[in-house]
Amino acid sequence: MSLRIYTRTGDQGTTGLFGGGRVDKHHPRVEAYGDVDELNAALGLARSIEMMPRIDEVLVPVQRDLFAIGALLATPDRDKMQQQLEKARIDEGRIAQLERAIDDGEAELEPLKSFIVPGGTPKAAALHVARTVCRRAERRVVALARDIEIPALAVQYLNRLSDLLFVLARVANRRAGAGEVTW
Question: Where are the alpha helices (DSSP H) in 20-121?
Fold first, then answer.
């Protein structure tokens, strides 16, 4: 017997949280993990365009991390939230890995002298879209953290990730031989 994708439990505008409880679908917690889910989908789209092994290899673990962050945000119980963070191995070491990936990407690039207009190749453009979704998710998580205790590492991770996505978009353009349009 297979499980059905529909449960009908959300037909009245509420959704269930990990560990129990229901909230409105427009609850700030749902908005936050929904934006993280959208970011994950945007990264999947970016990975599907013009395969670039070193870029895509960085993004797959990020997508796994985002599932964990989404689960963390959907978990109202503080202890279970901490378990989600530990299970995902999102810690200072993981933040440092993102920073190393940023540094590695920047080593391939000319230093920034002005703002970059998002675009270029389809791969780079998709990474720029993912970057903006990441910034929105970060804003939602920060807003949620004003009312609900959220581990600071979730915000730090999203902040670093948006920087990484900016660098990866620039790297994708450079590797494809596409110039950058400056503002």
Answer: 28-48, 53-73, 78-88, 92-107
